[in-house]
Amino acid sequence: MTSTVAAFHKRSIEDKEGFWAEQAQHIEWFAPPEKILDFSNPPFARWYVGGKTNLCHNAVDRHLATRGDQKALVYISTETKQERIYSYKELHQEVQAMAAILKSLGVKRGDRVLVYMPMIAEAIFAMLACARIGAIHSVVFGGFAAPSLAARIDDATPVVMISADAGMRNGKEVPYKHLVDEACRLAQKPPAKVLLINRGLAAMSRVDGRDVDYTELRKQHLGASVPCEQMLATDPSYILYTSGTTGKPKGVQRDTGGYAVALAASMKHIFDCKPGEVFFCTSDIGWVVGHSYIVYGPLINGSTTIVYEGMPTVPDPAVWWSIVERFQASTMFSSPTAARVLKKQDPKYMTQHNTSCLRRLFLAGEPLDEPTAKWISDALGGARIIDNYWQTETGWPIMSAQHGVEDTPTKFGSPSFAVYGYDLRLYHESTFEEVGADEKGMLCAVPPLPPGCLQTVWGDDERFLKTYFTAIPGKKIYSTFDYATRDQDGYYFILGRTDDVINVAGHRLGTREIEEAIQVHTNVAEVAVVGVADALKGQVPLAFCVLKNLDPIKSAEGRMAEEKAIMATVDKELGAIARPSRVHFVTMLPKTRSGKLLRRSMQALAEGRDSGDLTTLEDPTALEQIKSALKS
Ligand code: ATP
Ligand code: MG
């Protein structure tokens, strides 16, 4: 790590209170904190005790005087071919109308409101309106099936649910209302009221006494003035369930003041995005990236946020770059999965637009393999690609380059350095000793976690402690459940999840390492490797590959030759021990709705077991392909 970033980080750990008192200046307070950190009950951390603030005030009201007419939110749907632009003044109006509606439906400070919505501007009004009146929102990714929705209803017990008639995906309506009805039937404690936004996409039946119409209520409440509640910094602002890649989702509970400060500071130090600039995050509000970097981060920063509903490839694979050019976005945030989707398209789409305004493209959520990182960096003619690593639990990056602090060089395959505030350690998985440079360890963080990270698991302090703080015996240390190494220069490399390790004849191999090796083969677009039980070796790796060009596998001989070539690549990159026992070719891989590989399901199928909890699966046909590939 170079000196400036290192010094910044060091200070954040050694003088936590001083450091975070300074960062607190990036937001507005109704009353300043009495104490920066209360860590009297570890590992629970209470940041900015006694301070009073409001997320919505910081995201909207605060900017009215200086940038009231500036674009706050640009809504673009390539699904409904709609585009709407809201200035900060207009956003203020809409959020107040929504807040008045929620109040009229009986929502009070501390109540939960479940937001089950497509990517439309009203979803953001709803989140901000909750923050405004001190209600706790719980956004559930639109399109989750009724049982998943019901489980989240029963966990969060909302008084009101906000939904819409339908989402749209690739030109097709995805009706929501029947899912809402069924979830309310399945739930033990359904919400008293359901506020429905009618986009005119799908017919909706109404449940008398429960369902209310947004358009009607908006007419009544537009022009309302609803002041921001003075929330304690330590009051919960929202509940968000983790992606469910490894199992039952956990309800991450976030505070108010710490989160506001963490996001404001990250916009400056990590994203280096200036107030007034345009931030384009392609995630969905149903995920943590959407919460932090579609909604709160850019708005708290006084930037313009772009809210995009649609595919990255429709009407054509240049759609994102046309948006970048038209709105002069300086900063973009997306996922490696999306980058790999674009990599499969004709490269001409990458250069049709002038994207020279784009300083940086941040990618997170999954490992960013070196070939993809190099490819997209070249294709964008020099925009810097910033791999950053974090979790729903933390709410903002744990590792990233921090160009607002110092310009540091990138190493492909690495999310660079520990971010200020995170006291990261790597522990050997069996001795639990800290490992040295370039040695693999379990990635952990010494509490207190910095502001913005989860306060607890909603309604379950015990689960919070048991889940996150028991991996290292005898120490209450936060575990990320990911493996990593750190090199001499302080750059980290994420090796995969602790449950994605396979044991081949006593050799422990990360599935990610094998995937990276396979990616070296130039015809591979995407690959998933899982470990399958083997009587002789314990486990053997099995690969599922998506190819860029299908010509080589059109004949049986061709397929065998391609499989051999991929195996030879692994032999060369990693050694024969890591060679997959088989390479199956499919046209898509099973992923969660947030774009993460569902390795546990592929593995289960490969071992002849049931595929397990599939509520977060994006496209069921992907699993069907795995099944038929396995039969061949
Ligand atoms: P669940 O915890 O419910 O199983 P999840 O871990 O997929 O789901 P998220 O919080 O959305 O839920 O994802 C965080 C995880 O994603 C990290 O722990 C890590 O495994 C992976 N990840 C995120 N960013 C990166 C990155 N830049 N490089 C490698 N892996 C990453
Ligand atoms: Mg996780």
What can you see in these coordinates?
The structure is a single chain. This protein is an alpha/beta fold. The chain is built from 19 helices and 32 strands. It has an eight-stranded mixed β-sheet with strand order 12-11-8-6-7-14-15-25, sandwiched between helices. Strand 6, helix 6 (121-133) and strand 7 form a beta-alpha-beta unit. Helix 5 (88-104) packs across helix 6, helix 10 crosses helix 11 and helix 13 (336-343) packs across helix 14. The longest helix has 18 residues, at 556-573. The chain is globular, with a radius of gyration of 24 Å. The model has no long low-confidence stretch (mean pLDDT 94). Magnesium ion binds at residues 242, 391. Adenosine-5'-triphosphate is lined by residues 242-247, 249, 364-368, 387-392, 415, 480, 482, 494, 497, 594, 596.
